[in-house]
Amino acid sequence: MARVMMAGCSKRYRTFVQALAVGVVSLWAANAAGARTLADHHVTHPHHGPPGRGRPLVVVDPGHGGKDPGCIGLRGTREKDVVLATGLAVRHRIEAGHRYRVAMTRTGDEFIALRQRVVFAQQHHAALFISLHANHARNHLVHGASIYRFAYRASDLSSARLAERENGAGLLPGPRFGRMPPAVADILSSLMRRETWLHSSVLQASMVRYLASRTTLLPDPDRHAHFAVLRAPDIPSVLIELGFLSNPGDERQLRRAAHRAGLARAIVDAIDAYFRTVRGQRAVRG
Ligand SMILES: [Zn+2]
Question: Which of 72, 87, 226, 285 has the most CB atoms at less than 10 Å from its CB?
């Protein structure tokens, strides 16, 4: 974990973090009286999951559902319907490629709280979490897709407002360090979050690159904000706003299966590129 996180850092800082990691693990081990392993406390590596599971698991999360329709388009298109249809297209594409396993937080019109979506991904040891949404703006001229990663501070005002709206239907998930002493859990949680956020940035950049070849993107399409559904400390996560249902062109496109299939292809191409990048980084570092 620490090795990946420290790419590009100074040697002194690396030494400091290595010493810190060793100290944290020793402290934790002493407190656990040698009786438990890290795995017992559900500390999982962001990309590996438990050993022996084979292909990485991608969790696809169509936003909203059931009593929560999400935003409504000019022609009455419901966000919950287009994001589910796109999610099913992504699942189909992943299954056809046989490179990853795939699971969805919902496959029908059901309400699922944000916390449950994250817990689902954690319980299944997801390697990646991809949340799908569609946007809405008062100005009907605004159009294009955008890709978000988690951050405590938003990149801009509209991202902050968007996160507020998307966060409306659930509670924030906390870190998962079970019965560990709080001080140790805090340090481990912070180290893990930093590594996960770095990987989320790689995934976000990859999504921007491949989605740009399939659809119009907003200016500055790589944004960040305090999205509850992206808060898992151990799973690289992005939220994709596929377009604006308040824009006639975007709404028309999102209603077309061919367009959604194109988006699904771009998303899976981006997942491929993400894994190439992170595996390449590990190979270089040995
Ligand atoms: Zn949404």
Answer: 87
**C-alpha separations of 117 from 124, 170, 257 in Å:** 11, 10, 25
C-alpha of residue 274 to centroid of ligand 1, in Å: 24
Helix 257-285 to helix 182-211 angle, to the nearest 10 degrees? 130
CA of 176 to the centre of ligand 1 (A): 26
285 with 7: CB under 8 angstroms?
yes
| Least confident segment among 49-63, 83-97, 251-265 | 49-63
Measure 195 CA to ligand 1 centroid, in angstroms.
26
Domains belonging to the chain, first-starting first, are 2-285 (3.40.630.40)
Element (H, E) at 7: none
For residue 78, the CA-to-ligand 1 centroid distance in Å is 10
Q: Report CA(79)–ligand 1 centroid distance (Å).
A: 7
pTM: 0.78
Summarize pLDDT for 85-131 with one digit per residue, the tens: 999 999 999 999 999 999 999 999 999 999 899 999 999 999 999 99
